[in-house]
Amino acid sequence: MPGVTHVQSTLNGEVINFLCEPRQSLLEVLRDVLGMTGTKEGCNDGNCGACTIILDGRIVDSCLVLGVEAEGREMMTIEGMASAEGLHPLQQSFLENAALQCGICTPGFLLASKSLLDQEPDADEGRIRHWLAGNLCRCTGYDKIIRAVMQVSTAK
Amino acid sequence: MEPFDFVSPTTIEEAVKTLASAGDQARILAGGTDLLVQMRAGRRTAPLVVDIKGIPELNVLSYDASKGLTLGAAVPCYKIYEDETVAKVYPGLIDAAFLIGGIQIQGRASIGGNICNAAPSGDAIPAVIALRGVCNVAGPNGTREILCEDFCTAPGQNALKNGEILVSISIPAPQANSGANYLRFIPRNEMDIAVVGVGTSVQLDASGQNFVSARIALASVAPTPVFATEAGDSLAGKAVSEEAIQQASELAMAAAKPISDMRGTIRQRIHLIGVFTRRTLNIAIERARGG
Question: Of A46, A58, A65, which is closest to B78 when you measure between CB atoms?
């Protein structure tokens, strides 16, 4: 019977240590071991993007990463997006544009949008729509989400 | 997922030794975008998962004008299309790397994994076949090379023997006046599995008016990716013309042996192979002419 493994990584800027079984996805570890329930489980097979996190600077579906693969790596989840000063501009824009209804997809959309604008602050609508194709929303019809991201983008 | 043991070797020798002793009990993990889905759904079982991302040779991404491209089997798609040199020299490879899954999937999924997963619909496989890709394999008896067109043997099955791993894919440097392209048909804009896919490469003569050679490979129309040799060879020595392209597309249609399933019917798929062969050839020709 495979046992548990000790893993050390960085989560939202803090060094963390946890124990997990190899069979546990990073999504399960975040939610069930670390209590970071901001990361949501949608389809659990890499289609919906609800479990999107930023791993070493790139967005990934945390349901398709093993917890043990986090060893030595840097993770950012939705819990790390706002600062002590307040919400991230994308979070504020999602609120102002009513870019969420049930909210399950929102953490994934926010992190995916952040990773795009961090690397391309002037991303235009086409680029934003393409980048967010791996995130599904079943409530809003996407336009409000796209509008919220465009408001933060510097593209004119 | 069912419980399994997990190891992450840091050398090819260590990985080969582990895989050879575990036999069919082991599965290789690269980006995990196929394997973890299959294991969770119970379609694959693996008492031992071997993560090969810690092996330096599997993370190589290097281009040399004489040797061509060496693409480590675990290099994720985004690293390929964000590499300016590779993007410029191999647009036909980038076509595939840029449309596998969404951005999240491209952060993990590798071309090597796409080839090893051996899905008939694997987008990278026709693109790599068209570019004369060779799979560099290491195993208990040393190393060997397998042409990409010979690598997939059945749906989900590949030519790797017990203890072997795909280390890298070599793609020759493009010849003068050559171009390549991969296109697929999906009913959505993104995030879908190919109903059909076509990868082509062409080499033209210096005038840009005649074919020297061409290669055409097809996805989602047979139990394995199809290298449509007759279709490609039919263009060799011919003037670039609508008739020649039409004839090649008909030969590609003849090479397609699709099934009807939830993504498309036999008739639709064969029709689409014709359309997409013509379309990709025209893009490859344009690229060969420097367009």
Answer: A58
One pLDDT digit (tens) per residue for chain B, 291 residues: 899 999 999 999 999 999 999 999 999 999 999 999 999 999 998 999 999 999 999 999 999 999 999 999 999 999 999 999 999 999 999 999 999 999 999 999 999 999 999 999 999 999 999 999 999 999 999 999 999 999 999 999 999 999 999 999 999 999 999 999 999 999 988 889 999 999 999 999 999 999 999 999 999 999 999 999 999 999 999 999 999 999 999 999 999 999 999 999 999 999 999 999 999 999 999 999 997
- For every residue of chain B, which 3-state class applies, written as one string? CCCCEEECCCCHHHHHHHHHHHHHHEEEECCCCCHHHHHHCCCCCCCEEEECCCCHHHHCEEEECCCEEEEECCCEHHHHHCCHHHHHHCHHHHHHHCCCCCHHHHCCCEHHHHHHHCCCCCCHHHHHHHCCCEEEEEECCEEEEEEHHHHEEECCEECCCCCCEEEEEEECCCCCCEEEEEEEECCCCCCCCCCEEEEEEEEECCCCCEEEEEEEEEECCCCCCEECHHHHHCCCCCECCHHHHHHHHHHHHHHCCCCCECCECHHHHHHHHHHHHHHHHHHHHHHHCCC
Cite the residue boundaries of each domain of chain A with CATH code 1.10.150.120: 89-152
Mutation target vs A (from B34, B49, B103, B191; most A CBs, 10 A cutoff): B103
CATH number of B59-171: 3.30.465.10
Q: What would be the CATH architecture of the domain defined by B178-288?
A: 2-Layer Sandwich (3.30)
The second-level CATH assignment, the architecture, of A89-152 is Orthogonal Bundle (1.10)
User: Which residues does A contribute to its contact with B (CB < 8 Å)?
Assistant: 1-2, 5, 21-25, 44-47, 49, 52, 55, 58-61, 63-66, 68-69, 112, 115-116, 130-131, 133-135
Considering only CB atoms, A23 lies closest to which of B3, B101, B107, namely B3
CATH 3.10.20.30 boundaries in chain A: 5-80
At A63-87, the pLDDT tens digits run: 999 999 999 999 999 999 999 999 9
Domain A5-80: which CATH class? Answer: alpha beta
